[in-house]
Amino acid sequence: MTRAANRDLPARILAEAEKVVVTSGYQGINMRRLASQVGVTATAIYHYYESKDAILRKLRVKAAEMLNDRIRGIDSRLPPGDFLVELGRQYLAYAQENPNMYRLLFEAPVDERAENEDHTVLYFTYLAARGALEKIAKPGKGAGEPRYEAMMGWIMLHGFRSLMMSGLLPPAEGMSRETLRELFMSYYAHGQ
Length: 192
Description:
Blueprint lengths: L8 H16 L6 H8 L3 H7 L3 H21 L7 H18 L1 H9 L4 H6 L1 H4 L1 H14 L8 H21 L10 H15 L1
């Protein structure tokens, strides 16, 4: 006799896994420990999720949606350059407020199939930046190809945030981290 599926168990598993990621990083997910925290066997988890990677994939999409919600909250009536600056600020704030979800989103390995299937969600922020750059390029104000400029902008944001999170970016010339962040944003805004 088979047991009836527990409808709320997948959500409970993800909620518990998210707690682990938030407190310990995505590397902290262990299926047996997760099962114990949820109050089920590891086999029960595999009934709903084929692997740890499947759980991390769901959480990665959730992390992307959290960032995307911030970007959706930016006033679309802003001039494109101002929109890009605010996008950068929201990106950096998201990473600072949710460091382990940010790391899951941008540092955890992901398989190509998942990348393709989740593309719309995972690339929303990039596409928002690209859209603003395309608006700038239309009147001839932009210097280059919007898709490449959007990628360079993301590389700048991600590189800066990763260095700040790692502690490897020491404050220069006695600047506070906040002053360094504002200085970076000034360069980022002019580089777009």
